[in-house]
Amino acid sequence: MPAKRENIIKSGKRTAAIYSQSFRPLRLLRKYLGVIALAFSILLIPAGSTLLSPVASYSTIPTFEILTVTADQSLTIRTHNFPANQTFKATMGPMGTKGVKGIEVGNINSGAGGTFEATFPVPAALVGSYQIAIRLQTSHLYPYYSFNWFYNNTSGSNGTGGIPGYTGIPTFKITNVVKDTSVTIETNNFPANQDFTATMGVIGTRGIGGIVVGSFNSGNGGTITQQFNIPAALQGMGTIAIRTQTSHLYPYYAFNYFYNTDGNVPPPGGSGQGGVPYTGIPTISITSIIRNVEVTFQTHNYPANQVFQVTMGPIGTRGINGTAVGQFPSGNGGSFPVTVPIPASLADANQISIRAQTSHLNPFFSYNYFFNTTTP
What we know:
This protein has one helix spanning 25-31; strands spanning 63-70, 74-80, 87-94, 103-109, 117-121, 131-137, 145-151, 171-178, 182-188, 195-202, 211-217, 225-229, 239-245, 253-259, 283-290, 294-300, 307-314, 323-329, 337-341, 351-357, 365-371. By secondary structure, it is an all-beta fold. The chain has 3 domains: 11-151, Immunoglobulin-like (Sandwich), CATH 2.60.40.10; 171-264, Immunoglobulin-like, CATH 2.60.40.1930; 283-371, Distorted Sandwich (Coagulation Factor XIII, Chain A, domain 1). The strands form 6 sheets. The protein has a 4-stranded antiparallel sheet with strand order 4-3-6-7, with no helix packed on it. It has a 4-stranded antiparallel sheet with strand order 11-10-13-14, with no helix packed on it. Strands 18-17-20-21 form a 4-stranded antiparallel sheet, with no helix packed on it. The chain is flat. The two termini are 39 Å apart.
């Protein structure tokens, strides 16, 4: 299925682009891929809790892709990263509803979890619909869920290039820059046989509404190298946003930014963003808790050489404007543990939001929450 629109990471990969400069995972995840479990890595639950099914080692995002459609009759999906031994209710609804409060079309048990296929009927109330939203969700207070949508026709023609079996997120990295002259990109996981238009704009625009600098066909997809000229209107700028996007109603797209210096080297003193182009989404998962004392979390895919401030706040705040509890350097980036104290102001709170964020204008950040119960 196609890449999704901006600001979510929804199941089926209909949005999620690369936002190197400050990938905003949950804004992405909130608007679009809606994402699916709001980029919460693993939520640690007190013993005996039924708020969320206790799959102790589960720490990814459940998604599913559309495999086949028989118009007005049935739909077959394939799941990815599903937690084990969970019962999911499937609902369908009009396009744009994400399947929320939709018509129940079946239940499935995830068994061993991971990847499996399931088929659901198209309900009578949606027969004749052009597009239909579908959702899989457990019944817990804080449920596992995933959603997608499909064109209700058997041909697979869907206004997005219709690539059966395409999954993942198209991204690209910057491989070279010649100041005020050109930029070279290398794509990753691009869908095949799609026409992309490249645009550039000022930093922060993500290339939306930018200056057209070229176009290309993705051919066999996957990894492709392309070079684009830097337009006169952007020459002299320190950083430039670049975007590649198809022309479909629900397009495939990816975006990034680069330093307008030879070799893409950041200027002395930096520019409010990381030094080396970064791809992916920084996330955190909770690994241990000492009630009212401290919490330890594990970072995942963190950008290198950044300083993150950690804040905590009441559940639902995502840690925004929370109590500062410490900071840490990301060093070489990637995955590493961090332990911070639980502030007195949140002592005895049942659930606590935690956030790690840099101080840049367009910061790197990630957040999660935890139950204030000693674990393990």
